[in-house]
Amino acid sequence: xxxxxxxxxxxxxxxxxxxxxxxxxxxxxxxxxxxxxxxxxxxxxxxxxxxxxxxxxxxxxxxxxxxxxxxxxxxxxxxxxxxxxxxxxxxxxxxxxxxxxxxxxxxxxxxxxxxxxxxxxx
Length: 122
Hints:
Layout: H1 11-25, H2 36-48, H3 54-79, H4 85-108
């Protein structure tokens, strides 16, 4: 067995990590109510970013991803008429599940992870 002991984290740092993880995972609120997965991350980001400046980075990453997903899904929907849109919709839908999980895990470890393929707006 490994004797790996992670470095102790201050309560304030742990709080930031927890909120950052919640910010990434709040995208799954879409499965409870369609708009909740967009509103929840934005509300968490806007309320907590002044209290925890580190959260501002995570908030921008998540909102950029949400806007990117809307754009990619719109393009995929239009392209379904020529059949190439179906794989695009499937890929974007899969990434919309995978990326928040990875982002949440990284945030809980104190890391900032930018979603690949996300368009930077903020």
